[in-house]
Amino acid sequence: MVPRLGIPRGRPFALLAWSQFLGFAVVVFVWSGFLLTLSLDPDYTAGELLDHLQAWRETGVLYPALGALPPLRVLNYPPLVFIMARAVAWCGASALVAGRLVNALGLIGLLAAVAWWVRARGARGAALAGTIGLLGASFPLLSGSGQFHIELWAAAGTVWGFALLAHSSSWRGAVLGGLALALACFAKQTQVVPAVLALAWTWWHHRRVAAAATAAFSMAGLTGMAGIGACFGAEAWRHLVTYTVGTYSAVNLGGQLLSHVAPWLILLAFTARIAWSETGQPMRDPAIWYWLGALVWSLSSARVGANSSYFLDLHLATVICAGPRIFGQSSSRSRLWGAFVALQIFGADIGAASALTVNLLRAKRTEAELPSLCARVRGEPLVLAEEAGMMRACGRPALIHPFIMASLARQGKWDPVPFERALRAGQYPLVLLPFNPRDPAMDIQANRWTQPELLAFRSARVVEAVPTGRWVARW
What we know:
Distance between the termini: 72 Å
Mean pLDDT: 90
C-alpha cells in the first residue's frame, strides 16, 4: 500500500509543479549561459580540472610524477571525463569550452536518468515535471551545471544503474545497469559506494538479474582498470589511491551540513516518513537504499576541502523518493506536511538562486578586471597562484595546486621543504593570492598552504593589492 503523504492534487498544485519545473529550467539556462561568456569558472576545483586538461594537452601527461618542485599537481579523479573533454577539444574547442560542453552532456544524461526512473515509479504529467523541477532547489546540482565538473557524469551513471536494475526483468537491462554503475566509477571513484549498494539490493531483492549485473559491473571495472594502467601507468594509481586520502574536521562537517543539509531538512524528514510508513517493506525499494546510502556517505564531507558535490547524491535520491509523492498524491490529512514541504522548497529555491547570483556578480567583476590583472603577470617568468583557473585565464600554466599539496604535506606523503626553501629564496618572484598575506590567515588559506609558505608570503618585500580583489607578493 502506498502512503498518502503528498500535497493534495488539483489545478493550483499542478501549477506549482510546472512553475517549479520552469523555474529550474530558467535558472540553469541563465547560470550556464552567463558562464559561457566568462574566461574562467567561479569554482576553485573547476580551475584545477581545467589546468589538468590543458596540461595533458600540452605535455601528454595526465598523472605526473610528484617531485619537489613545480609543476605540483595531483589528479584525484579517474580519466573518463577528461578523455571526453580532450576528444571535444581535439575537434577545435578550447579546453574550457570542451570541459563545459562535456559537463552539459552529463547534466542532460543525469536529468534523463531521473526522469526515466521517476516515470517508472509512476510519476506522470505535472508530478513528473514537479519532481524534475525540485532539482532547482539543489545548489550542488545548479552550481555544477555550468562549470567544468565531473560529478554530473558520476551521478548520471549511478542513477541510470539503479533505475535499470530496479525496473529490468531481463539480463539485457541488468547488463546495462551494471555497465552504468561502472561508468559512474570511472568518472568519480567514490561512486563505487552507491554501486555496491545497488548490486547488494539486486542480490537481496532482485536475484533474477543480480548475476548479470554483477558480472557486467565487474568485467567493465577490470577492463577499465587495465586500460588506466596501460594508458597512464602506475602513477595514475598513486594519484587515485595513495594521494586521495585526506584530513578530517568536525568543524568542516558541521559547516557542510549547515550549508547543504539544513536547507533540505524537511524534505529529508518527508523522505524518512515515506520510508517509515511504507507498509510493504520499504527496504525492497532501491531508491530507499540509494537514499540511505547517500545520507550516510554525506558524512564524508568531514574531509577538509569537501564541497557541495558531496551532497549531490543525497539531493538526487531525495528527489527520486519524495518528488512523486509531493506532486502526485492526494490526502486530506497531509495538508500540514504539504505546507511545511512547500515552504522548504521555496526557501531552498531562494537560497540556491541567491548563492548563484552572488557567484555571478563576483565572476562578472573578476572578468571585467581580468585584462588588467593578466597584464601584471604577463612578463613574469615564474608566477605562483592559489587559483589555477585564474592562471589559465591569463594564458599561464598553474605551477601548484596548493590545497592538495598542503594536504599531502600534512599527511607526510609529500615533502614541502625544498619548495618552501625555494619560495623563501625568491625563486618564484611573484605570487598571486586571493587574500592579503600580511593579515592573519583564515581557515581556508591555512588549509591551502603550509605554515612556512604563508610565512614566506607575509615576509615578501612588496605586498600590493591588484585588480579582481587579489593581492601580489613580490620578492
